[in-house]
Amino acid sequence: MNRNAKIQKPRVAFYIRISTDEDHQKYSLGAQTERLEAFCKAQHGDDWQLHKVYRDTESGTHMNRPGLEEMLFDAEAKSFDSLLVFRVDRLSRKVRELAQMVDELTKNGVVLKSITEPFDTANAAGKMMLQMLGVFAEFEHATIVERTKVGMEKKAKSGRFVGGNVPYGYDLDPEKGLVVKEEEAVIVKKMFKMYAFGKEGAFTICNKLNEMGYRKRSGKKWERKILLHILKSPVYVGKLRWREVLYEGSHEPLISDELFGKAKDVLDERNDDLKGRQFHNNDERLFSGTMKCGKCGSHMFGGGGCKNGKHVPYYVCSKRFTQHECEQDYVRAELLESAIIQDIKGMFHDEQFIARIWEEANKRLSAEKPDMKKEISKVEAVMAKTMASLDRYFEAFEAGTMKPTLCNGKIEDLNARTAELEAERKELEERRKRLELPRMDKKTLAALLDNFEEVMAAGNNPQKKHLLKRMVKKVLVHDRRTIEIWYCLPNPQRFENRDIWLPGRDSNPRPGD
């Protein structure tokens, strides 16, 4: 043993978590860090090294936490030797997830320790204790959730506000509950009267309120969606809704039952008149999520209306629809989508354009070849060591220095390891072969175009969207006749943009507002 060899200091990582804001936590992020540092100093003095403090401010009931994901990534890279937590429920409140996490840490040579709980995953007893603590943490969380639901239902039945955003027109008093906020209540009453007794729709009412200088609590202008939400809310007639059940509230109503009922009748009637207007999810329009308004920069989404009894699909600017402030036209969906698809087909006939893309793709793929070659060399080196070990066991068996039963077990394990390494090597070789595109010619271009047309003709909307998303970076709609398309190239910093003129206005009628 070399006494002069330098002993490496223990590399320690901290994981800390709170569910919400620090002000309402028993142990804040700072307090947890201080306790963890004090523990390390008590255990190791100055003979330890802090790798990193991983932080999260999210619930422990799920694994999609930035700090947790970074910690597991670093653990796999063997960046630290021990992981310290204040309590095991900081990592997870679910036994199954906790067990999987500990297995992953152990596999990477990382020991998990809690400074407030008596376990250490370096031994079997510690792992058993960890499982027990995980069960208690999950049970505690489930109990808290159940008690919270019971408490909220009890509050609703007694007429008290159960929580969430305080309705516009009210303030929340810690003792009295909802109390009327006069300056907002005036606006709420005006909304109901304008909608119930006037002939204006929600858009017009929002415009009038904004012109009069009225604003939402955030200071922003009124929008149709918010107005309709207020008109449908039973809180303004003194009721509270909890889990789709209405209870009599203890707060003062802002409007009468008669006025609320009149507004509801108008809502129902206008919904019947507008039943031809539809708004679709992302699967309905091929370029939803990709298309933006060239006038204001807002996203454009898919809608549909009726014209002369016929359904008319279109794209509409979200700012125009929600705030009525953008002057962007409604654009017929089938005309716009057809124009973009035809332009893509034209790209496949542009041999110079495709050749440039082909060259860029090959450059990008070639850059990965050295790394792939290193990976294959590593696997082959391990295979050589494994084969050498097999030879040594065979020699020992033949020389009679090793028992047959022990030799058979060792050889079986090494053969299994060799098979795994061979499979890994073959997979890497296949990946290396895919790092070079074939020579491009007219036949290759024709095959690409055929494949594209086949998907666009026979594929469902999600399949079409997936293909188009990989080809089109974004679409800017400047007006009803001009769109600008940005195509993705292999180099993510480069795009091709082209203007396309849609057919004239006569073939592109706008559904009524």
Number-wise, the strands total 16
| Oligomerization category of the chains in this entry | single chain
- Average pLDDT, rounded to a whole number, is 77
Query: Class of the largest domain in CATH?
Result: Alpha Beta
List the total number of helices.
Answer: 15
- Strand-residue fraction? 15-25%
Coarse structural class:
alpha/beta
The CATH topology label of the largest domain is Rossmann fold
Distance from first to last alpha carbon:
85 Å
| Relevant CATH superfamily of the largest domain | Resolvase, N-terminal catalytic domain
Layout of secondary structure:
Elements: E1 11-17, H1 29-44, E2 49-56, H2 66-76, E3 82-85, H3 95-107, E4 111-114, H4 124-157, E5 170-173, E6 177-180, H5 182-197, H6 202-211, H7 224-232, E7 239-242, E8 245-248, H8 257-273, E9 278-279, E10 291-293, E11 300-307, E12 310-317, H9 318-323, E13 331-332, H10 333-349, H11 351-366, H12 369-399, H13 404-433, H14 442-458, H15 461-469, E14 472-477, E15 482-488, E16 495-501
Parallel strand pairs: 1-2, 1-3, 3-4, 10-14
Antiparallel strand pairs: 5-6, 7-8, 9-11, 11-12, 12-13, 14-15, 15-16
Overview in brief:
Helices cover 49% and strands 16% of the residues. The chain has 513 residues and is an alpha/beta fold. The chain folds into four domains: 11-143, Rossmann fold; 170-273, Alpha-Beta Complex (Hect, E3 ligase catalytic domain fold); 278-346 and 462-507, no CATH class; 369-433.
